[in-house]
Amino acid sequence: MTGKRNAIIWTWLVVLLVGWGLLGCGGRDHDEDAQDGGVDAGQAVDGAGPVDDGGREDDSSVDGGETDGGQQDRDLPAFGYDPRRGADDSPINPYDGNTYYIAPDGDDDADGSENAPWATFAHANRVVTPGDLVLVRGGTYYEYVSLGGLDENPNGYCIGTEDQPIVWRAYPGEHVIFDGAQSTVPTGLFSLRSVEWVVVRDFEFHGSIRIGVALQHCKDVVLENIYSHDNDGSGIGCVDVQRVSFRFITTSDNFDTAGEGGNADGIAISSGSNNRFFRCVAHDNSDDGFDTWESSGNELVECVAYRNGKGAQGDGNGFKNGGGSAGGGNSIHHCIAFQNRTSGFASNTGSGNDPNTYFNNTGWNNGERGDFWLVNIAHVAKNNLAHGPNGVTVYEMVEDQANSWNTPPGITVSDADFLSVDPQDLDGDFLRLAPGSPEIDAGQDVGLPFFGAAPDLGAFESE
Known about the structure:
By secondary structure, the chain is mostly beta strands. About 0% of the residues lie in helices and about 30% in strands. It has a 28-stranded parallel β-sheet that branches. The longest helix is centred in the first third of the chain and has 5 residues, at about 120-125.
């Protein structure tokens, strides 16, 4: 298989999308494990290969944009947030509603037009209807934003429809920052409550005294091209959310001081279902990178988690996908976890959880519980690649086949199998398989696309 080009194997058939880059929380951390068994934000993991938008046939989420997340002709990272993403989009509303503007020097008594923008999201929240577009001009905002409404949103604020979503986004090419430094409000810096068919994209959040971005009781929402960092809680925290699409998101350096780092994940979902994560990055958070507590049917695709577990009480897993008395049945594939304090991929299986599937993931140099820590029920793990001193912890009831630790294929993984084992080369050859590596074509067909005679092991497929 020499001469094959290394690229991530994008996991479903490429879906050509129409429109813009539209089509996306943290509560307390829970760890139900019954038995013990340096890059900048948004730096790319791989820029080559076709790109999947995340459109499953049964995915009813608001769809979004170009398959590259608005990359167009710009040299953008393939993963995570970048302020240039979507910069070439048209400001023209593709739906049937109105277009409104918000600006740091706006006035809520104005008409919300381009030349007379509003000042606050609170005012816009009471006005927008399905199909409306809100363009936010560049600058720093200190408002603690709450879209929708409390108590199941009886006024129906910020409720879109499948054909006419409500879109909140940065004006194309402008950088919008939400800064929580001036507030004492103990909620998310940017909250969505009981909203449906809403898109929020191209924003940066930092300095919240709690969660950066909070979602409660939301359905069919898209969060895209979001950077949430340095908050005193999770970067994004969700409770009771369904069909939320998280795309091109970076969460980093979130740390809850009151809990000594035990409750600040990169992205956390509690009691959610059928949500999708695509090309998101979570790093240097005090607790876990991605945590889907008591949540079911979620899919994590081509995401990256590294160096999580910075807090004394933080669990320190890259991907933690289970726990509690319900949930499970999550799919994690083509993801990468490295240098997380405790483990790369943790099932965190609770008593009522359904099995997860782990296909074509790569774990490298994770902590005491190893690159994969799969316990308690019959999870399915195939085509995964582990390379680190702490190995893997996989219980007997787990169906694990064709992974680097199984025989067959009987592979002894070494540094020589990779083009690079330098994390500083994350945007280049880090953890890509070298020509002639025994991991090439060593996997089983699990229904995901691959090149050659059989899938490669790990997140990167050789072409």
